[in-house]
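Below is a concrete protein record.
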Amino acid sequence: MKRNVGPTGSTASPLECQENCLCNRTACVFARASTTKSYIQGLECSHCKAKYSHRKINTVCTKCGETLFARYNLETVKDNLTPNDLLKREPSLWRYFEVLPVIKHENVVSLGEGMTPITPIRKSVSDLKLEHVLVKDDGIMPTGTFKARGQTVAISKAKELGIKRVAIPSAGNAAGAMATYASRAGMEAFVFLPRDAPESTKLECEEMGAKVYLVNGLINDAGRIVEEGKKKHGWFDISTLKEPYRVEGKKTMGYEIAEQLNWTLPDFIIYPTGGGTGIIGMWKAFEELEKLGWISTQKPKFISVQSKTCAPVVEAFKKGAEVVTPFPNPATIAAGLRVPHPFSSRAILKAIRESGGKAVTVEDKSMLDAIHRIAKDGISACPEGAATLVAVDELVQDGTIDRSDTVVLYNTGTALKYLNLLEAKPLPII
């Protein structure tokens, strides 16, 4: 079945911007400040359902330690917003303001992120004879990765709550995005990276004014340093799923896919999984959209993709476990997949299973080959995004994916952030 796969545009006038807006774009985050409001009601533990206020600083559930989710008055949203209303809004993730957690528009810290293209590919999957393969390409986001989604919302809400100092342990790209948005918000940023994190990320964080520290170890070791130091140094820990709002930014991935496919969801979403916030966020988005009546009850199957040399989610999925155990000796060229013990793995595994999906591994060499292969379709994919293309091959061969299925591959970043992995051929000099 053919679908409209182009991103929605905006018809707002630049005259609608507030006086203090210098963006001079066709539309911006200020354009709807007088007409939209958030319908957030509070926070709820994703596991034990304990309730918390969104007007106070919160991290994880104090009762069971799991992630807190923002909850909205969706019945009121349904009465005040329709899919057609979105057609008049700016092409950023803040078009979904009613189901995002920031109350005051002036607290939004934005660089125009979101509404990235969803593009059909053919050349790189021609051997598979698939009819409907699309790439949701977050490589064109500010900071070059999908991490901008979580950080624009998390930093905006932190600003609203009066937070001045933020800290993050990261495998790479989340740190770059956090440093960027914290800089724009005027916050102090403290970044803790594995010593062998990509050089591009270290430079990006330093350029944005963050205080960068290298750790002899992995992201989990960096996380322990942040945990031990946050009370002493007054840091707000903005780690993956250890605060309630990064997942709210990531859920816009699901809203955008639904809107760009005219509210008909694909059969499969293949997603490279490190911390797993994207799977959790998209599943949350689809649950909200179903309650709004904008989509049917038929949801996509999530395929979680990890490297064979760092696959804690895959191992737990195969064993039928509710949570992961730390993966020993993790080592992969895809920095975003080198997360040996993702926090809130319970929610990741729950979303995969409830969707009817599965978890698979791919080899690092195959990721490198796939970067070159998908480039034939004009997509600049990071190794994590390229891993989804490798997974398609295996899923078609084992019968999981049929020729007529609609499949969305999620490219989480640009290959330009991994130039160290790409070998340039000698060029002729004329």
